[in-house]
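A quick word before the example. In earlier lectures we treated sequence and structure as two separate objects. From today on, think of them as two lines of the same record. Here is Protein NRT1/ PTR FAMILY 3.1 written that way.
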Amino acid sequence: MEEMKENGHTQTPNGENLEEKKENGQSQTTKGGLRTMPPIFANEICEKLAVVGFQTNMLSYLTRELHLPLTKAANTLTNFNGTAALTPLLGAFIADAYAGRFWTITVASLVYQMGMISLILSAVLPKLRPPPCKGSEVCEEATEWQLAILYASLLLTAIGSGGIRPCVVAFGADQFDETDPNEKTRIYNFFNWYYFCMGVAILVAVTVVVYIQENIGWGWGLGIPAIAMAISIVTFVLGFPLYRNFPPCGSPFTRLAQVVVAAFRKRNLSMVSDPRLLYENEELDAPISANGMLLHTTQMKFFDKAAIVTEEDGVRWPSTSSEKPPNLWNLCTVHRVEELKSVIRMGPIWASAILLMTASAQQSTFSQQQARTMNRHLTHSFQIPPGSMSVFAYLSMLITISLYDRILIPVARRFTGLDRGITFLQRIGVGLAVSVIATLAAGFVEGRRKHAAAVHGLLDSRTDTIPISVFWLVPQYALHGIAEAFTSIGHLEFFYDQAPESMRSTATALFWGAISAGSYVSTFLVTIIHHASDWLPDDHFNRGKLDYFYWLITLLQMLNLGCYLVCASFYTLKPVQQRPKVASVELSSKV
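And the structure line, produced from the sequence above:
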């Protein structure tokens, strides 16, 4: 470790001073803490206002403004969702390896702003969209170049989201010191606060923003979130002096690859009799293990061979003296081997979220199309926009988060003794089970909607409203919101807690990676079923068999839940040996 002092203050290797204060007999930094939450949350709220405000109503925009067929529009939406959820892996890699979280968020926000401006232009300029329909049947589909401009705009917003989404979560949690018992409890609360703020932003997006898009115009509907995003960028940057900033620690993927290569090169060696003979170097690992070293575990013993010391490695072990670091492609430390093991162990838990996201994706596609065919009137003059039906999902999510944070956690804590109330694995499991019920309910409601259409002779109608209340869709939306409150926050807690310390942006990006995979699975299923059956027709939606599609997803989710329960029962939490707490010490950024 390197520690530099300047004018009585601790200084990080990159020259940043961390002032100290005495409180309750302990030395603490004046950076980070609750006061940094407003600018961090503001950035996330505005990003969600912009992306969800468009994404929620995107199916309406593609079908009613650009005149795309239903299945093409649905696949365009899920492909965009998938891409937008995949780019966080790239953004997180850049943050962890090179730029740090603050600068990644800042630059990504500017790219996002460019994408929003481009979207506004594509929505308001007549040459960038097809002409209005002539009558109710003759509609000219958007040209290839018009779609290309739209896709380019969406790509910019996806790239921008990729730098914001994973880094905001990890950056916000970084503001609390996990070696302090009091602040570590606040980390668990932070994930609930983060998701609550995100839910509020989404709630505003699917009500106010969608209403503006449907009734005032897409220019204002996209312009207002763009203005909010610009304000949030300024607010976030102005908060820079308050933040706890950790320097990037080099490419995490390189370290993982080094373990694999070293283990393969030593595959013919016999395993050592005592794990204490495996190579450790606390000085070498200090930059990537500020809060503690990972301890040796007995699973996946093959990778332990990467830490076996041989004469060719040119190091002595055990050794009490500092020496030149080894070639890490030939010899790795136990900590680095355990980093790889931790990532592999997380895989099955990560995969469990894919089908949940596949089911959730239907809310913004086929569930929205269901809503458009149903009676949406609240009064004679006002009817609920189809895209705003997801408000019930977000309301139930917000209520669930509030009850969870204020009631369930304190009650459960008395029985379990855990600061977070229940484990994140239990929280994920509850959400997966609720999601199964939500999709099953969606299938039954669709059956009732089709029955009403048949009774009133509307199976072949494209525009007539079926005399059945849109509020029949509320249970499936509400159950999906409850499932998200449990599973999504549980996954965020899981990834941040169980990921190697130096890979937390990358790990939280896996959450968005599951959303991406779920969206692509949805696209795959829709494409296959559309071509192989009459379940999802482009025309005559009421004659389709959407209920069969929902029940297929329900069956897949039940199988997924069973696999998750097996994997969760065998999951091993990462063992960490905590470092002695040293006030205001920043570790060297060399790897």
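Notice the following. Residues 231 and 394 are 24 Å apart (CA to CA). We will return to this example when we discuss secondary structure assignment.
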